[in-house]
Amino acid sequence: MKELLTGLDVVDDADVLDSLSHDDAEWAPYGKAVAAVRPRTTEDVRRVVAACADRKIPIVPRGAGTGLSGGANAVDGAMILDLSKMNRIVEIDAENMTATAQPGVVNDDLKKAVAEHGLWYPPDPASAPWSTIGGNVATNAGGLCCLKYGVTRDYVLGMEVVVGGPAGDYGTVVRLGRRTTKGVSGYDLAGLFTGSEGTFGVITEITVRLRPARREAPRTVVGAFGSVVAAGEAVAAITRAGLLPAALELLDRTCLRAVEDWKHLGLEADAAALLLAQLDTPGLAGDEEATAVAEVFRAAGAMWAEQSTDEIEAEALFAARRLAYPALERLGPVLTEDICVPRSRVPEMLASIEATAARHGITIATIAHAGDGNLHPLILAPSGDDEARRAAQAAFEDMLTAAIAMGGTVTGEHGVGLLKREGMRQELSAGVLAMQVAVKQTLDPLDLFNPGKVIG
Amino acid sequence: MKELLTGLDVVDDADVLDSLSHDDAEWAPYGKAVAAVRPRTTEDVRRVVAACADRKIPIVPRGAGTGLSGGANAVDGAMILDLSKMNRIVEIDAENMTATAQPGVVNDDLKKAVAEHGLWYPPDPASAPWSTIGGNVATNAGGLCCLKYGVTRDYVLGMEVVVGGPAGDYGTVVRLGRRTTKGVSGYDLAGLFTGSEGTFGVITEITVRLRPARREAPRTVVGAFGSVVAAGEAVAAITRAGLLPAALELLDRTCLRAVEDWKHLGLEADAAALLLAQLDTPGLAGDEEATAVAEVFRAAGAMWAEQSTDEIEAEALFAARRLAYPALERLGPVLTEDICVPRSRVPEMLASIEATAARHGITIATIAHAGDGNLHPLILAPSGDDEARRAAQAAFEDMLTAAIAMGGTVTGEHGVGLLKREGMRQELSAGVLAMQVAVKQTLDPLDLFNPGKVIG
Q: Does B3 have pLDDT greater than 80?
């Protein structure tokens, strides 16, 4: 193997290899990779893919490894393709409001670079300070501002990918999609690759659309609620009132306390749940919307609700939201849910989560992109406690079943990876699953690209 | 055949059948269908698809037939599936801002129905008063407000489709996508079917996301320019200034005169081109944006530019935009282009269109979703004049080549259908074309769904 990768940055140190063999989904199993390689160019990727295909070695691409479904986990005998060194921003085309980047560019780095041109790349997964654009595209990552601005998919115009199968030998480089704002020349393969979790090929370059930067800081409205279900009722009421915040996030008491104990941000940790709304309509209209949101919160039974007039406080609140996951991870292994239900069912789903926790005698902390109906109940289970682990697994499955029963999905934004394969089979019909398998077999007939993920 | 379709609304009158055998692309050839059927339910569609598959009869689905690429044109021996009677709005879920409709619902009818709930379905192809949601989804239709609000694809959450192939026998009914705002459970097949022009199956129900209705009428800014290229420069300058109108449309003198001669709207027809911008940011911020747009127009050399204070006048201008295509059709057969180039290349593409018209000695009228870089040069060629027809065809091909050379695409929103198949082959690499063919063969192994369109 090694002689074929001459001149490439090959990792074979056992500890480094192990750390590159899995993502941040602590509950997902991972296998033993043969090696990892850190390509710098598309040509490097092409060489590795061709060499692996010759030897039928599975290829597992990865970015920063912040995934939460095991989508970047190694299978036995795999070659890990660590794309984090392909971190060059190729072009910022301010005239056309697009940016082209290698997959290893960190989300926040892209945001900062385009901001210098008065532009904005909206997708903002909580992992944005660490996660890469390649990983974001592979998982069709969501985030906080999806409510108003959509998910990664809505920003992907085109990409360069190294594929095999119908396009040619494994190691063929193709460009999918386009650079223009619109385009329907052929099937939307760039869209199909977005969210395919590396199972169709390796993304080596991505062109995204941008928006003009926001001209003023968004307003933040905070509401404190006596129960998470009451907070859920307020979320449903916001939609009913025709209000469209840029973000509408929920943090329950367990999350707030975990962040406060760690970072001492001075957060109100008495409420059962906080709702954080961000309104970015400019000018007076934005002020009116902020007032309306606070009124809806109060009408829905908030203990208090107010617009944060202090920008530092507002930032601390959203920082708390972003830090909730790592703060909980400090307390022990976390099993992360990622269900999404119709917004009107948010209160019911939150009640179901509480009932599930009580039924299994476990702690479930909930953070949520509540305005999207996308909830992240985080199941805490102490290491080494087999019974707690079984209870956690049972709770995990109960919540997937409940979400499906409410017309929801088992994964809103984290992807299927390894953890949601069973849930996906429960959610989709046999016919749709067969279509999925057929598309995978067509585009990757040797099953070399991230095998066992999504399908399998 | 007929006995198998007992109880269905079968059309076999030769004249009606002929009228159902093609769309609005006058230049696209069409074959002789065996019959047309007008299903009312998914079960009707299922029966027809199964019966056709038994006899290897190709199935050509159609809505209102307003397509401009021949995507709904019959092939010889085809069964036409006219879905215009499947025109029921199944559900408007105001709480979750979604609507579910049968494919034959007219775009404007859906808009009106959801408006009664304070909601808005943004996609607005110029054909919106006639074209159907099914056709809009099949072609991933664009429109005027794509610039700020995206295309049909951005609103499709899920769909019911009648398919064959991997999902089961032809006539299998599956649901793709979801009803939630976010979701990544498996490959994005709903996205793949959007824009696939009926070549993977027949859409029988569609769930779209909605937005809250706009709270105030948008502002309209009009600029008159001494040349189309100068208008193009103004379009590029708008993007550079970080302004994001809801729509930014261009009409050249030929279009304006054709509409004026027909409808007598009192349009200014002296300018070489008009730009129409619509700004819908609410409140004072919207007023400021309208002022800024008018200033950019003036700085780019407009003869005059002003905000329309008269709502009736503003509506007349946008009505003129929508009527431009039918107004030109009154003058003779129209060969419609649908190129899309990066916005910075709009002036260059407009100059290239003028040079093409001069070179071939023909008239090309241009309407454009200029802010998107999506241009519709309309080639006028008198019927029965073979030389003019050859010149028109040559000009058509020249413009496709020019658009590709500028980093553009051969179809921004009308679809490949029959007219853009050559252009698509010129635009996409051999590898990507092979992937497209492979996906089609996988999902429709008998090549029964709208054969010869897109691929082929």
A: no
Asked whether the ipTM of the predicted complex exceeds the cut of 0.90, the reply is yes
- The tally of domains found in chain B comes to 3
Type of residue numbered B122: P
Domain contains B190: yes
Mind listing the pLDDT tens digit for each residue in A328-360?
989 888 999 999 999 999 999 999 999 999 999
Do B259 and B302 lie in one domain? The reply is: yes
Supply the Cα-derived Rg of chain B in whole angstroms. 22
Q: What is the pLDDT of residues A142-157, one digit of tens each?
A: 999 998 999 999 999 9
* B151 vs A: CB within 8 A: yes
Residue-level pLDDT at B290: 96
Rounded to whole angstroms, the Cα distance separating A322 from B255 reads 53
Supply the CATH number for residue A278's domain: 3.30.70.2190
Question: Domain boundary residue among A303, A330, A357?
Answer: A330
Cα A276 to Cα A91, A144, A221, A370, B385, distances in angstroms:
35, 11, 6, 9, 67
Question: Which sign does the torsion angle of CA A163, A167, A170, A171 carry?
Answer: negative
By CA distance, what is A342's nearest residue in B?
A: B180
- The span from the CA of B290 to the CA of B87, in Å, is 38
Residue A316's domain spans which residues? 215-330
State phi, psi for A236 to the nearest 5 degrees. -60, -40
Residues A27 and A96 in one domain: no
- Tell me: the pLDDT tens digits for B173-186? 999 999 999 999 99
CATH of the domain at A145: 3.30.465.10
Statement to judge: residues A204 and A148 lie in one domain: yes
The pLDDT tens digits for B402-426 are 999 999 999 999 999 999 999 999 9
Predicted pLDDT at A121: 98
For the segment A293-328, what is each residue's pLDDT rounded down to a tens digit?
999 999 999 999 999 878 788 888 888 888 898 899
Determine the residue among A153, A159, A182 to mutate to test chain B binding: the one whose Cβ has the most chain B Cβ atoms within 10 Å.
A182
Instruction: Please report, rounded to a whole number, the percentage of residues in chain B having pLDDT higher than 90.
Output: 86
CA distance A215 to chain B (A): 10
CB distance A240–B95 less than 8 Å?
yes
- State the Cα–Cα distance between residues B104 and B205, nearest whole angstrom: 9
Coil, strand or helix at B327: helix
Same domain for A248 and A307, yes or no, is yes
> Tokens 């990918």 — which residue?
A161
DSSP reduced 3-state for A126: coil
A343 vs B contacts (CB less than 8 Å): 95-97, 181
Residue B394 placed within a domain = no
- Per-residue pLDDT band for B56 (boundaries 50, 70, 90) equals very high
Q: B23 with B93, same domain?
A: no
Give domain status of residue B406, yes or no: no
CA distance to B174, B270, B351, B441, per residue, from B446 (Å): 18, 55, 45, 8
For residues B153 and A293, give the distance between their C-alpha atoms in angstroms, rounded to a whole number.
30
**Is B201 among the domain residues?**
yes
